[in-house]
Design goal:
The complex is a heterodimer.
Chain A: H1 3-10, H2 14-22, E1 27-28, H3 35-44, E2 49-54, H4 57-71, E3 78-79, H5 84-89, H6 92-106, E4 110-115, H7 117-122, H8 126-135, E5 145-148, H9 157-172, E6 185-188, H10 195-208, E7 212-214, H11 239-243, E8 250-253, H12 260-269, E9 274-276, H13 282-297, H14 303-323, E10 327-331, H15 334-347, E11 350-356, H16 361-372, E12 381-384, H17 388-397, E13 402-405, H18 410-416, E14 420-422, H19 440-462
Parallel strand pairs in A: 2-3, 2-4, 4-5, 6-7, 6-8, 8-9, 10-11, 10-13, 11-12, 13-14
Chain B: H1 39-47, E1 54-58, H2 61-65, E2 85-86, H3 91-96, H4 99-113, E3 118-122, H5 124-128, H6 133-144, E4 148-151, H7 160-175, E5 192-196, H8 204-215, E6 218-223, H9 229-233, E7 240-243, H10 250-260, E8 264-266, H11 272-286, H12 289-317, E9 321-326, H13 330-340, E10 344-350, H14 355-364, E11 370-371, H15 377-387, E12 391-394, H16 396-404, E13 409-411, H17 422-437, H18 441-446
Parallel strand pairs in B: 1-2, 1-3, 3-4, 5-6, 5-7, 7-8, 9-10, 9-12, 10-11, 12-13
Helix pairs in contact in B: 1-7, 4-6, 7-10, 8-17, 11-12, 12-17, 13-14
The chains are: A alpha/beta, B alpha/beta.
Amino acid sequence: MSPANTVAEWINTKDYHTLNFERKDLVINPAKACQPLGAMLCALGVEGCLPFVHGSQGCAAYFRNNLSRHYREPVSAVSDSMTEDGAVFGGQRNLIEGLQNAHTLYKPKMIAVFTSCMAEVIGDDISAYVDKARQEEAIPMDFPVALAHTPSFKGSHITGYDNMLKGFIQSLAKPRDEKNLNNRLYVVPGFDPYPANLREIKRLLEKIGVQYTLLSDYSDVVDSPNNGTFQMYPGGTPLPEVIEALNAAGFLFLQSYSTTATRKYLQNKEKIPTESVPMPIGISNTDRFLTKVAEMTGKPIPEDIEAERGRAVDAATDAHPYIHGKRFALFGDPDVLLGVVSFLLDMGGVPVHIISSNGTPIFRKEMEGLLKTSPYGQSATVHVGKDLWHLRSLLMNDPVDLLIGDSHGKYAARDAGIPLVRIGFPITDRVNLHRSPIIGYEGTLNLITMIANTLLEEKDRNADTAHFELLR
Amino acid sequence: MFVKLSNLDLKDNGEIAEKGAPKLCMRALPGEGAERSCAFDGARVVLMPITDAAHVIHGPIACAGNSWDNRGARSSGSQLFRRGLTTDLRENDVIYGGEEKLRQALHEIAGKHKPKAIFVYNTCVSSLIGENLDLVCRQAQTALSIPVIPVNAPGFLGDKNIGNRIAGDVLLQYVIGRELEPSIPYAKNLHAINLIGEYNIAGDLWGVLPELKNLGIILQTAITGDAKFDDLRSAHRASLNVLVCSKSLTNLARHMQLRWGIPFIDASFYGVEETSNALLNIAKALGDPELLRRTRQYVKEREIFTRAQLASHKKKLAGKTAILFTGGIKTWSMVSTLKELGIQVLAGGTQNSTPEDFLRMKAMMDPAAHIIEDTSADGFLRLIKDKKPDLIVAGGKTKYLAYKTRTPFLDINHGRKLPYAGYQGMITFAQAVTRTVFSPVWDLLKHPFAGERGSSYE
């Protein structure tokens, strides 16, 4: 046997599995992106905002490309293309020139500056540089610029989203004035790859009659209608509402791990009423979300939302035989995983392997807590900081029926001979999945449909003639 | 530690002052956009298709996390090259250094995955914190008994084509001519060629191979599509280098000529005429009159066959118009390819080509055709509005911009999924163009909502 074949077989064994989990200094097939990518997505969600990467030019091209491939939409952003000179003399000239050019060429209402590694390694003081840019009249004195430090060697895309969000509030919002509160509920979705999720949140809030601001709201930017004209800034959270953010009646966060720094800042420093619920995936989590909205605003949940819930529960009932007792492996961002696992437990699905490359020990604890609440959660192991190569070993040695995760999971799923239901970021090999919500009762219905039908497809594909049936 | 930029002859063809000519500058203007990728990406593009090697990125998650397996270079054998390998440098590594981490990672890869060689890519972070990549690689090579090759092309060096050139340099310095058993006397393989700049995107190489085989021309190796490391080591045994794309690798061809006396020619396998030209020029350059006679006969037959297949497409497409924006040899060869389908190129442009490619494109286009100067999103939109083309042929970055303006779009760069090279590739291309131009969705888009608010119906 050739050495290549030997390796190909050996990597499927228990022996290799053990060695693979001892691996420390090498990541194989990573399942996370970097801070500035998350910052870019967050920045796209404010009205008229041009995302601006302070760092090397290649980073920005990668982020645009990856966001474009997931959303199948043009993504507008610029970079100030730091080169070797920047490494030696600092990036001040690049940032000032870049702001001037971007402001003149693309006429944004505001610019969100965030950094990639290079600027952070050399320690650029971007705040001082922006002041200098104003003094030199590269941009007008009152032109809004939000700032965030987002080096890729810390955290991941969800941390970058968080830092940019905090950057928006810190850089732009007026100080809190208790006499002039605006009665609005500020709702933060977190790093959510689905524009349809953002629309679903808005639809529910409108049905309840809540005065709200969704921050940041990129739903119309990464999913704009085709009307024959390209619009550079097709939507987003209105800039005045960002400026008014600290006068909010309260903040409701729909994700925790992609909003940690922002929540801490609002709670501890600004003393704003802040609540947080798990991502509203599944019946139980959607109930929690709506209950919290009712509690924070004093508004009752209207009957037609209850009817939606009824239909989702009905769909769950119809589909439960196909999901109950099935074994699942999942990978992705912490908040999405907490939501999907809660949904699976609602349905009697059995999570077995849960991998979060960008998960923290706190996340592991929370996930383990959730698993403990259900008899279906007893077979699961939670792995944080592991990659898709670890996942492969798990799938080969402790098989499951279905894998849930983003498109990068397709290799491990293929090797293990199981289907992949695509949830998360990025999804680059299927169309339009980001255009249907996976949150709220509607989203729960979609999830049930996707997962149950994938399992049924698999059953048909593998059935011999005797067991190939019209009724399933 | 880095390749000296001045050694790379970046301006070897001399910059030209013509409007719309590609700027050979090494950096984009700050704030003008984010179209251009970086030197690191350029080096990856050239080296990563080497299938049985491991490619490890020594940097933070950005560089590997955003790019692993994103090129569509295909392999008939090992898939090892597609694995995303990185040291995932973290804050502590930035402070205390990541060399030890890299050393461990190299041992892990060599011990468990048995690659033929390991390429180690430097990144902005690893080079800024002063990692001695060359030393770590040298030591690992001794310890592991396989080639461990440093690729010093951190992103901040500038554009993609700088990275392409550095990769060419790496191949010369560490791979080509370094056979495992140097005792075998150096002998050229007659009728053997290398295809330089062929990365087997969407399987392009496999569309060309049958034609070469039928003529008795041997592919020594592609540089680097579907290439095995050991075949690349013997690349110097070829009798001819054929540059099919990536003029940034001209340097590699030049040095191979100097060192091993291998002549080189340009060729394009896009389009019937260009494929025939390529085969004829290869036969001529190989200097075998019998091969040339055979090739003349062969291309005649293949042209007749292919043109017959294209006829129905040509009939439908005649009179259609296109805007072309790409790089490398495609800059000009696509002009003739589109012409062969009866499509008129209204405007053409390039960002990454050589002045020579640019001038050739200009010569092939209608004198009235527009040369694209403003390559920003804004410039494109104005151009589309002015010219109202039936088709845009460009790379993925233009795709969704085109869609938003309701213009049919065909990806010609690495985002595509179909092979367009060779005679069969041309048929595939014609089918793809027809499918694109005549999709009913474009009509659907042009009709506004006709419901009760039908006042906007035109």
